[in-house]
Structure formats: C-alpha cells, structure tokens
Task: inverse folding
C-alpha cells in the first residue's frame, strides 16, 4: 500500500481490475480535500495517470455502489470499479 | 444463494442444493472458458472480483429472481482466479414449479451477473500478451470525455 499526503481527510482507496495495473498498486491511503466521489476520482485519475473516463467507472463507498455525487468522509473506504466482465 | 469460489465449481453439488420437492423444472446454465474472443485465440483467463460488493450484489440478483419468477430456489457460483480453457467460470441453477419461469429466470440471473457484479476478466493470448475484457467502449468514452 502506498501513502499520499495532502488534504484534510484520509480515505482508503482500492483499485480494481485494470485500474490497479494503471495505478501500479491495488490499494492506496490518500489525504484529500475532495467533497464528493467525483472530486476524489478527478484527484486520483490525475495523480495515478488513470486513462478511464468517469462515465465508465463506478465507485463503491464502504462496500456500497454510490453515485458520483456521494459525499466523501474521513476514513471512508472507496473501491473503484472499471466496467464489469464477469460471466 | 450466490458465492464466489477460488476452487473448481462442483456442478452436481450446486444442482443438488437447488432441488426442491415443489419444483417441476430445474434449469442449469454453465458458463465455460472458450479458446477464442473476437476472432483472437485465447490461452487462459483470470477473474478477479471485489468480494464483498460482488457477494452482496449477487445475493440481491438471486433474491430478485426468486421474487420476480416465483422460483423455489436459485443458486449461482462464480469462479475467480486462474482458469484454463473449458473450465467452468459460472454456474446458475434455478428450480420452479414450471419450465417457462425456470428458463427465463436462469437467463435473468446470468445476464444480471454480467451487468451488475464487480468481476473482471483478463484474457491471456498465445503471443504472450494479455488484455482486460469488457472495456471496448472505454477508449471512445475517454476521448469523448476530454
């Protein structure tokens, strides 16, 4: 797990599927000022040079898939899901 | 019931657990690993999942199928980890009083699993390359989003 530090909240991020290969890590503890999941995605996308657009990614916050408008709180667990391909 | 499995799926055991004296029909879907994808030879696969959300969403799908189609039982198991060609990737078994509902429900469950359960498939090819499947539209969406 890598650690990044700027911002007033700490969140635990899990990169799933191809995102963990792009990010070079499966999980990351980050400090952020993001107020919403969308703002957090923008930060993580830039910081980790992720190529996927928000429109094809989903976020699960504390094990529940949530809309991008969902607020981010201190110590949240945020999992990022590229398009599914099970079955 | 829905669960992820790191080990080989025992179809007979899943079938047995879906049996019910009230049922007149049992339909099973077995999804297997094929040796090609979009004209390209495939050597093997790897599946990974977000376990807690996958099991939660999978159980929700199964419960929806039972409610919507009036099933007696519905079970689904999805394999994760490394799979070889012809291995079973997913099994869905549903039982109901009559066959029409069982056929429809089985298809509903596998279709919903594909759309809603956080599982990702990576294909490995004979030339040594590999690729995550299911993101064919991502590059276009990315360009569009910029």
Result:
């Amino acid at each position: 797990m890598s650690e990044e530090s700027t911002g007033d909240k700490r969140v635990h991020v899990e990169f799933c599927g191809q995102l963990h290969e792009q990010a070079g890590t499966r999980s990351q503890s980050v400090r952020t000022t993001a107020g919403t999941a969308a703002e957090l995605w923008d930060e993580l996308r830039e910081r980790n040079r992720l190529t996927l657009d928000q429109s094809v990614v989903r976020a699960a916050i504390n094990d529940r898939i949530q809309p991008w408008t969902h607020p981010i709180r201190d110590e949240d667990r945020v999992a990022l899901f590229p398009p599914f391909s099970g079955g | 019931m829905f669960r992820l499995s790191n080990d080989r799926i025992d179809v007979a055991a899943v079938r047995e657990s879906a049996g019910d004296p009230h049922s007149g029909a049992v339909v099973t879907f077995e999804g297997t690993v094929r040796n090609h994808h979009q004209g390209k030879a495939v050597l093997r696969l790897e599946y990974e999942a977000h376990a807690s959300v996958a099991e939660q969403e999978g159980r929700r799908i199964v419960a929806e199928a039972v409610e919507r189609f009036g099933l007696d039982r519905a079970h689904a198991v999805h394999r994760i980890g490394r799979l070889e060609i012809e291995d079973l990737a997913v099994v869905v078994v549903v039982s109901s009083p009559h066959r029409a509902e069982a056929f429809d429900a089985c298809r509903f469950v596998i279709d919903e699993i594909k759309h809603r359960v956080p599982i990702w498939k990576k294909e490995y090819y004979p030339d040594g390359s590999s690729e995550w499947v299911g993101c064919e539209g991502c590059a276009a969406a990315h360009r569009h989003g910029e």
Notes: Strands of chain A lie at 2-3, 9-15, 27-32, 58-61, 64-66, 77-81. The longest helix of chain A spans residues 37-48.
